[in-house]
Specification:
Blueprint (H helix, E strand, L loop, with lengths): L1 H17 L11 H13 L1 H7 L11 H15 L6 H10 L8 H10 L7 H28 L6 H16 L10 H17 L11 H7 L7 E6 L5 H15 L4 E5 L4 H13 L3 H6 L4 H10 L1 H4 L3 E4 L6 H15 L3 E5 L15 H19 L3 E6 L3 H4 L16 H5 L2 E6 L20 E9 L5 E8 L4 E4 L3 H15 L16 H8 L11
Parallel strand pairs: 1-5, 1-6, 2-3, 2-4, 4-5
Antiparallel strand pairs: 6-7, 7-8, 8-9
Helix pairs in contact: 2-3, 2-4, 2-6, 2-7, 4-5, 7-8, 8-16, 11-12, 16-17
Protein name: Replicative DNA helicase
EC number: 5.6.2.3
Pfam families: DnaB, DnaB_C
Amino acid sequence: MEKVQSKTSFAKRPSQIINLEKGKIPPQAIDLEEVVLGAMMIDKKGVDEVIDILNPDVFYKEAHQHIFEAIHTLFVNSEPVDLLTVSSQLKRSLTLEQAGGEFYLIQLTQKVSSSAHIEFHARIILQKFIQRSLIKISNEIIEESYDEATDVFDLLDTAESKLYDITQGNIKRSSETAQDLVIQAKKRIEEIANQEGLSGVPSGFELVDKLTSGWQPSDLIIIAARPGMGKTALTLSMARNMAVQHNIPVAFFSCEMSSVQLITRLISSETGLSSEKLRTGNLEKHEWEQLNVKVKGLEKAPLFIDDTPSLSIFDLRAKARRLASQHGIKMIMIDYLQLMTAGGNKNGGNREQEISTISRNLKALAKELNIPVIALSQLSRAVETRGGSKRPLLSDLRESGAIEQDADIVSFIYRPEYYKIEEWDDEENSPTDGQAEFIVAKHRNGGLDEIRLRFLGHLGKFENLETFPFTNEIASSMNAAANDDTFKTPNFPSAEDAFGSSMNDDLSPEGEDEVPF
């Protein structure tokens, strides 16, 4: 008698949650549930077609949830799926009685003769489940909206998050078994092997990608530096490498510069024309042709720039979810963290607590969308007052230690040239002209390193340092040619090959090695 009462109360519980008005029956398709389960038990083809579409939660009837769970377990274990094996699996999991017993399983197989149209039927079952989920979420939002103590911005964020989950067809489960996770991990390892060891989003910098295997999904990456070190230039270079070279959709949120200023920087980087020339429009005829030709790749790139000032974490999450849903973005970049706000009614909190809230939510966003998030950050003035090489440390992160705690990777940009340091502190005492160091100071899933990059200040661009010797060789030959009378003859190369003629205008007065390519 007790079993009957407990079962009855369990069956009534969902209706109490999802019914908005008394007397309304939740959307359901029990007859199709019976047909789909029966077809799966008599035809292996039916299992293959719908096993990745459905999950136990989409079935309205509790007995059907147990039956599908048994079928899924058999499928994962590569065991045959039929009436007898499903019955045995239900016995092993002690859920045969909740599934209706062996007689009910026999009835299900008698309701259908083949697996024809099983995928169509499964889609209808899934639609009914989505309808029930929407009703449940709407009911929860209504109840919370009547609660005066509820923060309206938190309510909006929660509502949008739940709706996003439904849109993605990814209603969250409380947990996953180790078996499912091992299968996912094995598939991922196979994919990595096919991609020659690069499992994440490539940055375009060879040594950085070698250290990180690409920026990994769900990781929060902090890139910190003092003003003038080239934080924006580095992230724009990465965004360009991802969107233009690899056609990877990237979202760039700029709280500091306008979208037009950012795209102008990218045009400068792409064409080799200095930002000053692009700002003034003082271009030669061949430079106009160079601009029109080389900017075409940038025009087609899946790069989305948002320059909303004082962006709140709530707005960021809403925009990011929308971009992920509509454009399938694989990377989010934020310039920069200290210009964001926590939003909502965060009374009584100081700036350090606000930054902690922002960094914590950025990590949550990376996990929710399963994509890497790169956030730029300012360093404190302690770097300037320190003697020696003035290399930044983790303790220099400004305003909050939570940034270091929440981030999977913390890195710094260091340019000795900025501090008038002309030689690196290495054994060779190599020159620092046009070079920067990308310092990985924290790496949760890998090693640490100090990677040198090529910095082209007049183009606002970073490159691999491997091109450095080749670049110097070109610069030397171009300058030698510039001193020759033949350089000025009418036989000079056409506009497409006019790299040398425009190069002297772009050379900085401090050195001849700052060239765009």
